[in-house]
Write a structure and sequence with these properties.
The chain is mainly α. It has a domain of about 90 residues. The chain has 2 helices and no strands. The longest helix has about 55 residues. The radius of gyration is 22 Å and the shape is elongated.
């Protein structure tokens, strides 16, 4: 076997591995979304319990930040759970000429937290809050 044949064979094996990995990841995503859909209320309850524990341990010092995170976590769980429902609906309508819901979803990730103690700026298409004050120049 010469170098070109070996390279081609490695390329084929890599392609097969990539396809199998993609299939496994799709299956895991589907199972995770199904889990969220079935247990959304329990997950929300667990989020509340953890938030209460952290708030107690920090003696309320970070209460507003904790509430912000709780809200974002619940919205994320709800969104992912609804993607499961949308995927199920898309499967049911496949071949019926109906576009899959969520086909053009926003993949913008939130900005990483800053260590300045201030909230991260909005990302994606979110307009700035009307309640925010402009930064002061020292």
């Amino acid at each position: 076997m010469d170098k070109d044949e070996a390279r081609d064979k490695i390329g084929e094996k890599f392609g097969e591995l990539r396809d199998k990995t993609g299939d496994v990841l799709d299956e895991l995503k589907t199972k995770g979304q199904e889990f969220l859909g079935k247990h959304e209320d329990k997950i929300d309850s667990a989020i509340d319990k953890v938030a209460g524990f952290v708030d107690d341990q920090t003696k309320g010092k970070y209460h507003e930040k904790i509430e912000t995170v709780v809200g974002k976590a619940k919205v994320t769980v709800e969104r992912l759970a609804s993607e499961d429902a949308a995927a199920g609906a898309a499967t049911a309508t496949a071949g019926a000429g109906v576009a899959e819901p969520g086909a053009a979803t926003d993949t913008t990730e939130p900005a990483p937290p800053t260590d300045t103690g201030e909230a991260a700026p909005p990302t994606g298409g979110e307009p700035p809050s009307d309640t925010e004050e402009p930064p002061s120049n020292p």
